[in-house]
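Why do we care about 3D structure at all? Because function follows from shape, and shape follows, mostly, from sequence. That is the central idea of this module. The next example makes it concrete: a single protein chain, its amino acid sequence, and then its structure expressed as tokens.
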Amino acid sequence: QVQLVESGGGLVQVGGSLRLSCAASGRANSIYTMGWFRQAPGKEREFVARIYWSDAMTDYVDSVKGRFTISRDNAKNTVYLQMNSLKPEDTAVYYCFLHSQTRVDSWGQGTQVTVSS
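And the structure:
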């Protein structure tokens, strides 16, 4: 079983930056991808970004391209999301996920990001 622990959320003004971290522990030695979804109040959960563990290729939702950067630390089984030029519409609970090579998904508990105007 995999445990995901997120950190780094908080309150920031428009245009500011935050960095989210997500550390995987337990049976985290078969990572295929890790990444982030987010869910704003009254909206469905949406994909934000992911990184492929083998070659560090990345995918982003169009609305964050050029502002967010996902990266990983293999040795620490940790994924990061650097968020710059934050906008009010980025306000959401951000959930870390891990998709294993055996097609099993694990989720973090979520961390709140609030962007004030």
